[in-house]
Amino acid sequence: MAFKQNPGRGNMLKTGRSIPPTLMTKSPMHQEDDSFELTERYNQGVDQMGEVRTSSKKTKEIGDKQGIEINPQTGASRAKGYEKQLKRSGNQLRIVDGSGKVLEEVTYNNASSDGGKAARELTKKFNRNRNSTNSKRVNNQTHYNITSGAKSPNDATEREKEILINAKKAIRPN
Questions:
Q1: What is the 3-state secondary structure (H, E, C) of 50-106?
Q2: What values do phi and psi take at 62, rounded to 5?
Q3: Which of 80, 108, 137, 173 is 20 to 30 Å apart from 131, CA to CA?
Q4: How many Å apart are CA 87 and CA 92, to the nearest integer?
Q5: Helices and strands (H and E) in the chain: how many
Q6: What pLDDT sits at residue 77?
Q7: Where are the domains of the chain?
Q8: Which residues contact 156 (CB under 8 A, 6 or more apart)?
Q9: What are the respective helix, strand and coil percentages of the chain, to the nearest 5?
Q10: Which residues, listed in sequence order, are joined to residue 68 by a DSSP beta bridge?
Q11: Backbone torsions φ then ψ of 156, nearest 5 degrees
């Protein structure tokens, strides 16, 4: 045989050492200019929210519906806290609402360190609902603040810019 045979190229690790660092930061296909222009719809929304803020009844109505509290002077909103609570009394584990009304109840097994299967399931359900509600309220707060003009669009984060663009209150220039 005239030359030595190797069984192919063998395993090659994908280390990325041959790629320049400038290309590893962001894909060239997804590099975009993060500038945007506000539309007339944004200005109309800001004017409309200004009118709503003059009526405390409308402000409270919108806030209650969205799970946010709106400051009538500044127009800024903040997410309300979760009203329900998980309470244990004796051998009962309960989910109660803000007024103290029992919504759900299970027997807590004192022999078990975590109260038994029923208590674990109720705790899991409570935590899942609380996290979901809080997440929705924070999203509503962010959406309200950026679309109502309570927060300056110049100070907007990428997520807030996307909210404006998706609501057709801003466009990316071509």
A1: HHHHCCHHHHHHHHHHHCEEECCCCCCEEECCCCCEEEEECCEEEEECCCCCEEEEE
A2: -65, -45
A3: 108
A4: 8
A5: 5, 7
A6: 87
A7: 36-171
A8: 146, 164
A9: 45, 15, 40
A10: 79
A11: -70, 145
Where does residue 96 rank: exposed (0-12), middle (13-18), buried (19+ CB within 10 A)?
middle
β-pairing, 92-96 vs 85-89, is antiparallel
Q: What is the mean pLDDT of the chain?
A: 81
Cβ proximity of 139 and 133 under 8 Å: no
- Sign for the CA dihedral angle at 15, 21, 25, 31 comes to negative
To the nearest 10 degrees (0 to 180), the angle between helices 40-53 and 117-147 is: 110
Q: Which two tokens stand for residue 83?
A: 């009203």
Would you state the pLDDT for residue 134?
Answer: 93
pLDDT digits (tens, 9 = 90+) for 79-135: 999 999 999 988 999 999 989 999 999 999 988 888 899 999 999 999 999 999 999
Structure tokens at 46: 């800001």
- In the three-class reduction of DSSP (H, G, I as helix; E, B as strand; rest coil), residue 150 is classed as coil
